[in-house]
Amino acid sequence: MTAIDAQYGRRTVRWLALGMVGLFAAAVVYINPLAPEPTAPGQRAAAPATHSPGGHGGDGLTDKHDGYALLPVTLPDRRGKALPVAFRVLGPDGLATTEYEPVLSEPLHLYVVREDLSFYQHLHPALAGDTWTAAVDVPDGGVYRLYAEFVPRARAGSGHSTVLGAPFVVAGDTSYAPIPPPAPRVKVAGYTVEREEGAADGVAGRPRVVRFRVLDAGGAPVTALEPYLGAYAHASVFESTTQSLAHLHPTMPASERAAPGDGVLTFHTQFPQRGRYRLFLQFKAAGTVHLAPFTVVAA
Fold first, then answer.
1. The pLDDT value given to residue 56
2. Average pLDDT over residues 67-88
3. How far apart are the C-alpha atoms of 235 and 248, rounded to whole Å?
4. Where are the transmembrane segments (predicted)?
């Protein structure tokens, strides 16, 4: 058994609420030493410092990047369905950013994952005044991270979105699941999604094209895929040890092509480093968005 397998092996952990809250607070102070100082009502917050750990747009492992900062207002502290989340995005001037350019048809995308990558949720929050709000599901105790992806209006035309992240901890019994090994196909709600490369390893550090084929219950290609977020599929990728976020970009938006007659979804990607990745592919068929998770090893 490898160290990674041991780390993510099935085990039960009881989180001690007071201890974890204290540990979490300490971790936030350590990870985010540049967090804005509290301000009086109506007072301008200090401008967030520029921080660039994850490439052009960030990887979601920090709450500050390229002059922008994620300021949580409400984070889940218990398990349950449709729990409230609220946050602000501060700009280089220290004020809340309220004007955005659409990214894949939405002004902001919110992702929530658990640290073992056994849970993934993709949401589109609502902006009320200067605060983004959403309702997220928390199926189990443990450590979670939320990611906000957006393009500020002031950065329109930059060619990349900004990704900020913040962790939160939910106390209680936690059952961790090991990351599944790479598989050539995944079944979901009567469909089969095949990775065209099978279970072959990816190549780290090189741009490449990846393809997935959607088949119906009878094994025939699905020719009636429906547009989702301006394309015929959406995919996000998380590295297994750090949970850094990367994206697969569709080769062509839905507005420029008909639904693929062969059921094949094609993306550009680049795995930034060697390791295991959890890839979450979303596609829409018969009016419903489906999620097909894959494990990919980049060598």
1. 66
2. 97
3. 5
4. 12-31
pTM for the model: 0.80
Whether 3-175 and 185-298 share one fold: the answer is: yes
93 is written with which tokens?
A: 């001037």
Q: Could you tell me the pLDDT band of residue 94, with boundaries at 50, 70 and 90?
A: very high
Q: How far apart are CA 4 and CA 61, in angstroms?
A: 19
286: tokens are 């018969």
CA atoms within 13 Å, Cβ hemisphere of 89: 29
| Segments making up each domain of the chain, as ranges | 3-175, 185-298
- The pLDDT value recorded for residue 85 is 98
Task: Name the superfamily (CATH) of residues 185-298.
Answer: Immunoglobulins (2.60.40.10)
Identify each DSSP E strand in the chain by its residue range. Answer: 12-14, 64-65, 68-74, 80-90, 100-101, 108-114, 120-123, 126-128, 131-138, 142-152, 162-170, 173-175, 185-188, 191-195, 208-215, 234-239, 245-250, 264-269, 275-285, 288-298
Q: How far apart are CA 130 and CA 133, in angstroms?
A: 10
Alpha-carbon distances, residue 147 vs 4, 168, 188, 244, 288 (angstroms): 23, 11, 25, 10, 24
Q: Are 10 and 175 in contact (CB under 8 A)?
A: yes
- CATH assignment, 3-175: 2.60.40.10
Q: Which range scores top for mean pLDDT: 75-89, 155-169, 238-252?
A: 75-89
Cα(37)–Cα(193) distance, integer angstroms: 48
